[in-house]
Amino acid sequence: MKVIICGAGQVGWQIARHLSGEKNDVTVVDNNPDLVRRATDTLDVQGIAGFASYPDVLEQAGARDADMIIAATYSDEVNMITCQVAHSVFSVPRKIARLRSQSYHTAIYSDLYRRDHVPIDVVISPEREVAEAALRRLAAPSAFDTQGFMDGRAQLIGIALDQDCPVINTPLRQLTDLFSTLRAIVVGIRRDGRLFVPEPGDQLFPDDQVYVFCDSHDLNRTLEIFGKSTRKKERVVIVGGGNVGLAVAKALEKRIDRIRARVIERDRQTAENAADALDRTIVLNGDGLSMELLTEAGADRADAILAVTDDDKTNILAAVRAKSMGCEMAICLVNDPTLVPLLADLDIDAHINPRSTTVSSILRHIRHGRVRGVYSIGDAEAEVIEAQVLSTSPIAGQQIRDTGFPEGVLIGAVMKGDKLVKPTGSTRIEEGDIIAIFSMAAEVPEVERLLQVSIDFF
Fold first, then answer.
1. How many CB atoms lie within 10 A of CB 187?
2. Domains 130-225 and 358-457 fall in the same CATH topology
3. Which of 178, 131, 136 is nearest to 157 (CA)?
């Protein structure tokens, strides 16, 4: 597949890294020559320095025979014009654009993206993706990572194991015997910084970070078995009242189980806009690092603080300060991946990587086969792929033990009709089933091959 990626920042670079690693023909376009050089020096891609919306630049990038264009520059308008030029001049079949401004995502303007208006096939909203990630963290507060699959019926949760975890030193195969009715399976373990897919005889040790697939109805029970609290968060302080913070506050207001939230926003106009948009949430104007303001917001009595400003250091320091005041849990937005290893030592419970969420949402639309969802794990170390099995897939009609998936791949959940099934070796994968697969990055091409549909379906 020939793909043009416009924008060589972190998102564009990560997408290029994924696609070039899977032997696609990738060209990166950016008006910053240094970013283009970084991409071409570190990845197996071609690079063009120039403005992505210019027809002659897209011509140089090979738009005339491109299969897809992904517009992920820092400018919404450049991304929209790039897709328009790719459609009108070069007839590129598939166009994906990242649009930050929430005005472009308003439902009443959804007709804007028709082929006869602004021809964008898929619109990605980073702010909306990040807000949803923040809400998932709050829903499972003792997990460091969460993601829904199978239309919300299954959950992938990341759990850091403590010394007093009840299942420490227990071989994974014994978990099935001990908790026979538990619909959960450990699909990944990070130990001493290395992520791997476990074998049935592997044991769990303190300080392991484990990724567990579970039925959503068994979420609380799963957390309890791994020694985690399931107490709901009732009082939340949100630092940052921009698009992400406002989206989270609005979602919390709509919940049936009342959650009391207070928002701290430094910019006065942004704070006023947030206050006008919210009904029951108090918005405070001031510095989220101020002890006085955090006290006024009730951070010392809060169940959680969610720091989602556009500045990583502000988010981290606000989270640390709130924890030192007595706040039970701290979640912060971190753009810079080099800061992530510091978070555990700072007693920050969970973080959200906006680039990772955006990369996951873009990958969802470029995988082969009948792929319904993709979630990127860590620094693109692994992926969870949700896909529907078609009759032409090599795994259709096979038992899981006979499917031919390589080491480094585990099926975490299977949905047959409207019934979620915990997979075992004897589970038969049938046409129409929906499966969720945890795969190390190196094995993704083979997973795609086994999911691949015949040419008749294209």
1. 24
2. yes
3. 136
pLDDT tens-digit profile of 301-325? Answer: 999 999 999 899 999 999 999 999 9
Predicted local confidence at residue 25, as pLDDT: 93
Q: How far is CA 81 from the centre of its chain?
A: 27
Domain ranges of the chain: 2-124, 130-225, 235-350, 358-457
Q: Structure tokens of 111?
A: 């007709």
pLDDT at 110: 65
How far apart are alpha carbons 364 and 153 in whole angstroms? 18
- Tell me, what's the pLDDT at 335? 84
The CATH number given to 235-350 is 3.40.50.720
List pLDDT tens digits, range 341-364: 888 889 888 888 887 777 777 777
- Tell me how far CA of residue 84 lies from CA of 53, 60, 78, 113, 126, in angstroms: 9, 17, 10, 10, 21
> CATH classification of 2-124, choosing from 3.40.50.720, 3.60.10.10, 3.30.450.40, 3.30.450.20?
3.40.50.720
CATH topology of domain 130-225: Alpha-Beta Plaits (3.30.70)
H or E element that contains 66: none
- What confidence score (pLDDT) does residue 457 get? 36
The counts of H helices and E strands in the chain are: 13, 24
Q: 358-457, which class in CATH? A: alpha beta
pLDDT in tens, 211-251: 999 998 888 889 888 888 766 778 999 999 998 899 899 88
Give residues with Cβ within 8 angstroms of 380, minimum separation 6: 14, 17, 18, 359, 441
Across 218-323, the runs of DSSP E, i.e. the strands, are: 235-239, 260-265, 282-285, 304-307
At 305 the three-state DSSP class reads strand
Q: Rounded CA gap, 68 and 285, in Å?
A: 44
In angstroms, the Cα distances linking 237 to 136, 369, 386 are 16, 42, 34
Q: Which residues of the chain have pLDDT under 50?
A: 369, 453-458
User: Which residues make beta-bridge pairs with 146?
Assistant: 157
